[in-house]
């Protein structure tokens, strides 16, 4: 299967009749044999075409910061890892994810300097919202806003916000999660995981009736992979809470708002105690307990004792400030539990505040130092866990106290009311991510991009996220009547959450780099889903294109499948117009081990297929007309003349035509290539001429003149110091001999052959190069004929127009020079012109071009001869007779065929007759004709002089 046919699987254009199979095979063969240049030079490019990009990303394209380049740099170094070495591949991939986290951590540090105080204020407000919400007992509070924002920026810039800081912190957590999962689930290939578990179990010895319960729990974690994975996620959730939520001390600062100072926050229920004392003093018998104590606001009855169980035992209340104190301190303890503090840390914190009994009530179940509070095993402290369950369900002064004991006993019903975020619910329930996402309180938050990414990693369905995300990117890129150049259209329906995700560039960047990491570690992806999954990479490449980061694109294109990489890069090339930038991008593609030749082939086919010059878009013209009839009194012309300004301005070609011209220019950058350069140039020029787009043909010939192309590419191909024009007859010139000697010397050194042997091989090589480039050379000659005729007509008008005030004094001299140019340009027509196609298909194309242009060109030439004979000298009419002889010569049968097949032979004879009449008229003016009797190559006009002697 050819590379072109293979690409059709991606939605690219398949092969068509524009190129013969022989020319196609020779093109690819030449490129495959070429070497590559490994030099590197970064691009600096700002050109882009936003109309063809993923339009929802345009608004933030100009906000891309330096991190995008840092990520690309890390990937660029990583891609050269030892992919065939499992150990090196694993270690380098782990280092890459660590480097991503480092970038995020550094960004957080920088942003924290700008927005740290804002973050602290936001955390305090979140704590206040928690406490205010919990005042309404028995109700489940609504989830507070996630740390994510729907309007996230990117990069550390002057316009950053608190949301940027929160995003980057969340991203750093995501990279840490990915690292933990890679190390746990993939692991170092050098380690036998099963043997390691067996060794650990053997070291611990058998379980017996006296084995501590904590030891049983730890042994369980060693043996059960799923449990160990869940424990890993819990640890990660605790770590994220430590830097995303206020800590216990910050929570306690809220007590200062109640009127208590720093020194009174650890002295218990001061206001209730004071109210009890006042009531006792006012009672009839102060030594007895007051039968009833009313609150200061007289709205409720207070406890009469101050032990910790008084409220639940007496079913009475505390003073409002004490109630707030109680609620706050239990919130602080809940925060410590949520953040994974050890029992020793919780105990010390409570002891500092004279609340040691609270730590005792939570920590009696523990048998080891450093253990987290009652989360170490299913059987540890069963009786105590039951007591905690009763305290959670039947006791508790507020929801946070109930939640703490619910956490200790494993009672989710009493924990859910204090959960505020997606992470809280996931931590408290240990349920699967899909189940958590169905909870009404966090359903919206669970659909935020970062939560979707984290959830897919935790739930082990990242490949499913990739597929759905790729489908959504395709839908977004090809929506609203827009057709994406990089992302093929899909018929699969996209989910709304993933459609929303396509609008967040940060999510796209994270998913792309996570995909690269996991794919390197053999992420299992169904083959039928891979094209849609690769849309994610293509979408990121499209964003880099839009943002002007063209130099980063090869790094990511190299991670695509070979065909998709060629497909994608081919659609990026039209954005790059500067030759230096084109050369640098090709160097980068080679360094990324991407086939530059295949990319250029795909690029050419894409541009041609998408343009109005496709095989089925524009039929071959029957005739390119640029002559106009003249009146009989205008005897200076033989009944017709060239239209003034018939040649289109090559500077005003269409966008389609310009893309094709630039597609040809790219091939000049192929090293050591000859045929691979001239094949596309020939195809493009044939297409322009076949469709009558002469302006575009002129533009191509001006920007890629044969002489320049030949000199440049022959220097590379023949390995000589100075290039040559292979169509010139250098054999008679000294410089050609010098070039050959240099070429021979180099061949001799390379192949260690005698100089004479190398010399024998030189001429056939040049001759082969001529044959391979001949069609392009002759097509360019055809274009030069039209250019010469156009210039003649403009100069002719200036000389004929007697009213022209700008008529130059030396106009006839200029006209003589232009006539010589026309004659030289036309001359190739008379010698086997455009008859050397590579196969029958190309011969058919060349025949169609000859029929469309040659008759009109010869008629124009005869018109030029006719007027030149009158404006300059009648000697020019001899050329008309010579032309008649050439057309009649069987050696030039293709000329006569062009007139016969187009039905214009009669008209040609008529023009010859007009020129013959002009000879007679000019002969009658013999007294006025200068140069009478002069001969041109033995020819004379005297036989046309009608005199008695003749």
Automatic annotation (TrEMBL):
This is Nucleoporin nup84. It comes from the Eukaryota. It comes from Coniosporium tulheliwenetii.
């Amino acid at each position: 299967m050819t590379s072109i046919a293979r690409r059709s699987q991606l939605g690219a254009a398949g092969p068509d009749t524009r190129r013969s199979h022989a020319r196609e095979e020779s093109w690819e063969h030449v490129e495959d044999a070429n070497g590559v240049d490994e030099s590197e030079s970064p691009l600096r490019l700002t050109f882009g075409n936003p109309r063809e990009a993923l339009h929802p990303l345009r608004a933030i394209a100009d906000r891309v910061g330096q991190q995008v380049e840092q990520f690309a740099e890390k990937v660029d170094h990583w891609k050269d890892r030892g992919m065939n070495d499992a150990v090196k591949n694993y270690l380098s991939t782990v280092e890459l994810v660590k480097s991503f986290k480092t970038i995020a951590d550094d960004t957080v540090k920088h942003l924290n300097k700008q927005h740290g105080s804002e973050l602290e204020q936001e955390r305090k407000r979140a704590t206040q919202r928690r406490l205010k919400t919990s005042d309404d007992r028995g109700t489940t509070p609504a989830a507070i806003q996630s740390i994510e924002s729907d309007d996230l920026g990117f990069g550390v810039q002057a316009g950053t916000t608190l949301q940027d800081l929160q995003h980057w912190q969340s991203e750093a957590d995501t990279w840490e999660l990915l690292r933990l999962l890679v190390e746990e689930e993939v692991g170092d290939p050098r380690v036998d995981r099963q043997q390691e578990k067996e060794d650990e179990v053997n070291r611990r010895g058998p379980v017996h009736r006296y084995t501590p319960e904590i030891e049983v729990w730890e042994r369980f974690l060693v043996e059960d992979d799923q449990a160990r994975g869940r424990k890993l996620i819990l640890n990660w959730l605790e770590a994220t809470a430590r830097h995303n939520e206020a800590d216990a001390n910050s929570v306690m600062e809220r007590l200062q708002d109640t009127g208590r100072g720093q020194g009174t926050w650890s002295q218990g229920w001061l206001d209730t105690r004071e109210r009890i004392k006042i009531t006792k003093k006012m009672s009839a018998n102060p030594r007895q307990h007051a039968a009833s104590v009313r609150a200061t606001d007289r709205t409720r009855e207070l406890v009469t004792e101050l032990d910790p169980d008084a409220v639940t035992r007496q079913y009475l209340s505390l003073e409002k400030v004490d109630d707030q104190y109680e609620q706050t301190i239990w919130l602080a303890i809940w925060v410590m539990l949520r953040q994974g503090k050890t029992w020793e840390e919780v105990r010390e914190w409570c002891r500092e505040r004279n609340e040691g009994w609270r730590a005792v009530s939570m920590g009696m179940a523990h048998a080891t130092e450093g253990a987290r509070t009652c989360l170490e095993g299913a059987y540890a402290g069963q009786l105590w866990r039951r007591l905690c369950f009763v305290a959670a369900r039947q006791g508790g002064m507020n929801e946070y106290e109930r939640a703490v004991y619910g956490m200790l006993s494993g009672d989710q019903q009493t924990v859910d009311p204090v959960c505020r975020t997606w992470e809280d619910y996931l931590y408290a329930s240990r349920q699967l991510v899909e189940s958590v996402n169905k909870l009404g309180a966090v359903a919206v938050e669970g659909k935020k991009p970062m939560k979707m990414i984290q959830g897919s990693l935790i739930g082990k369905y990242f490949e499913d996220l990739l597929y759905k995300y790729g489908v959504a990117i395709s839908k977004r890129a090809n929506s609203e009547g827009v057709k994406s150049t990089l992302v093929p259209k899909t018929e699969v329906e996209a989910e709304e959450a993933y459609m929303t995700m396509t609008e967040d560039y940060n999510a796209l960047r994270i998913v792309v780099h996570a995909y690269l990491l996991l794919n390197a570690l053999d992420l299992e992806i169904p083959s039928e889903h891979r094209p849609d999954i690769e849309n994610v990479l293509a979408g990121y490449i499209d964003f880099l294109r839009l943002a002007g980061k063209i130099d980063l694109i090869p790094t990511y294109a190299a991670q695509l499948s070979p065909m998709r990489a060629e497909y994608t890069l081919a659609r990026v090339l039209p954005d790059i117009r500067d030759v230096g930038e084109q050369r640098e991008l090709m160097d980068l593609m080679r360094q990324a081990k991407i086939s530059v030749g295949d990319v250029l082939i795909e690029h050419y086919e894409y541009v041609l297929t998408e343009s109005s010059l496709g095989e089925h878009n524009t039929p071959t013209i029957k005739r390119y007309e640029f002559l106009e009839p003249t009146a009989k009194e205008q005897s200076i012309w033989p009944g017709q003349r060239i239209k003034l300004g018939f040649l289109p301005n090559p500077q005003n070609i269409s966008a389609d035509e310009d893309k094709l011209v630039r597609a040809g220019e790219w091939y000049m950058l192929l090293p050591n290539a000859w045929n691979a350069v001239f094949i596309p140039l020939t195809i493009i020029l044939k297409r322009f001429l076949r469709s009558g787009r002469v302006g575009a043909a002129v533009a191509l010939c001006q920007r890629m003149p044969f002489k320049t192309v030949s000199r440049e590419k022959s220097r590379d191909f023949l390995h000589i110091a100075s290039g040559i024009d292979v169509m010139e007859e250098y054999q008679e010139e000294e410089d050609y001999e010098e070039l050959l000697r240099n070429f021979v010397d180099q061949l001799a050194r390379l192949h260690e052959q005698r100089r004479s042997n190398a010399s024998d091989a030189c001429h056939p090589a040049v001759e082969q190069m001529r044959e391979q480039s001949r069609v392009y050379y002759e097509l360019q000659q055809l274009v030069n004929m039209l250019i010469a005729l156009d210039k003649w007509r403009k100069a002719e008008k200036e000389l004929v127009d007697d009213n022209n005030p700008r008529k130059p004094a030396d106009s006839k001299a200029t006209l003589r020079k232009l006539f010589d140019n026309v004659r030289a340009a036309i001359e190739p027509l008379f010698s086997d012109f455009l008859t050397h196609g590579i196969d029958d298909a190309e011969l058919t194309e060349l025949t169609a071009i000859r029929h469309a242009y040659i008759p009109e060109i010869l008629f124009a030439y005869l018109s030029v001869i006719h007027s030149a004979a009158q404006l300059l000298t009648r000697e020019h009419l001899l050329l008309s007779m010579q032309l008649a002889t050439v057309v009649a010569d069987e050696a030039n049968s293709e000329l006569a065929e062009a007139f016969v097949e187009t039905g214009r032979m009669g008209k040609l004879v008529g023009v010859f007759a007009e020129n013959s009449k002009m000879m007679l008229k000019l002969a009658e003016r013999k007294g006025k004709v200068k140069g009478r009797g002069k001969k041109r190559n033995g020819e004379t006009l005297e036989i046309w002089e009608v005199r008695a002697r003749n």
